[in-house]
Amino acid sequence: MSDQRPVVLVTRRLPEAVEARLQRDYRAVLNGTDALYDPATLPQHCEGADAVLPCPTDRLDAAVIAALPASVKAIATFSVGYDHIDLAAAKARGIIVTNTPDVLTAATADIAMLLILAAARGAHSAEALLRMGGWQAWAPTGQLGLEVTGKRLGIFGMGRIGRAVAKRARGFDMAIHYTDTNPVAAEDEAGAVYHASAEAMLPHCDVLSLHCPLTPETRRFLNAERIALLPERAVVVNTARGGIVDDEALIAALKSGRLAAAGLDVYDGEPRFHQGYLALENAVLLPHIGSATVETRNAMGFTALDNLDAVFAGREPPNRVA
Ligand code: DGY
To answer: Residue 1: how many CB atoms within 10 A of its CB?
Structure first.
């Protein structure tokens, strides 16, 4: 009897338990080498596939989606973000698109908090001093950072991750300010101060943490004009998407000392990134590890598979974005 299970093209190597479930329930075409597919060749790889399971490293723009074979019914991305997928093009072709929200909230909020603390205290340069053999002795004026206790944290985008960062920051006695399209419910606000616009919030941010999706409206949101609205020596943290920041403007503000420090986990055009960051001692740089825990990456894979299971059972997938 021929194998009737749907064919799923998987673009990257996934956690073992996720690949095992994929192989149990689908005819999975896995990427054993984990090499990145050239977007232009993705449609060829999808020949005969009923669904694609891509990652944020794959660019499914309108041209790629238009070239996908007619057999592709669903794109189940292994990510909460879907700025790498042209939703309108998918909709136009009747292709369902799903994502993996919720399961990476805690891990990503943890990395945002880690970057807030590391950037404010200069943990990376202190560690480098020790590793390079430059530590002479404890010094009353050595490696002085900024205290976060009692400072104001501004959150740009009070969605799941923004709220989880606020919760963590309250544990450090930070006062929470936020802006979003609308105020969140009182229980989620938990005393945070709402500002109707980013411009109104920025002067109140000793630390600014970015938590909005990348859209045409948020691209280069943090530019020179908005940096100028932040208090002197503010700290900026980005765990959302690199494109939200104008790199030239951020680098200039870090270089001049107008901003005290930045903590970045994401970069415009990653894995390439503006090389100007490398020379800055006051920038903590991580390679997009917000969701990189064993538990979270398994959960992301299982969520993507729950979405596919629903599609192929004729049900509405739990996390449909198009
Ligand atoms: C996502 O899921 O969009 C994250 O950026 C991956 O960590």
So the answer is: 3
Per annotation, catalytic residue among 288, 295, 297, 320: 288
At residue 242, what are phi and psi to the nearest 5 degrees?
-60, -35
Does ligand 1 have an atom closer than 6 angstroms to the CB of 81? yes
The SS3 assignment for 176 reads strand
**The pLDDT value given to residue 1:** 79
* Residue 209: alpha-carbon gap to chain centroid: 12
Q: Is 79 in the pocket of ligand 1 (CB under 6 A)?
A: yes
Average pLDDT over residues 203-230: 98
How far is the centre of ligand 1, averaged over its atoms, from the C-alpha of 317 (Å)?
19
Q: Give, in degrees to the nearest 5, the angle at Cα 156 between 189 and 81.
A: 105
CA gyration radius, the chain: 21
Average confidence (pLDDT) over 181-201: 98
211: annotated active-site residue: no
- CATH number of this structure's domain 7-103+294-312: 3.40.50.720
Question: CATH number of the domain at 105-285, please?
Answer: 3.40.50.720
Residue 239 beta carbon below 6 angstroms from any ligand 1 atom: no
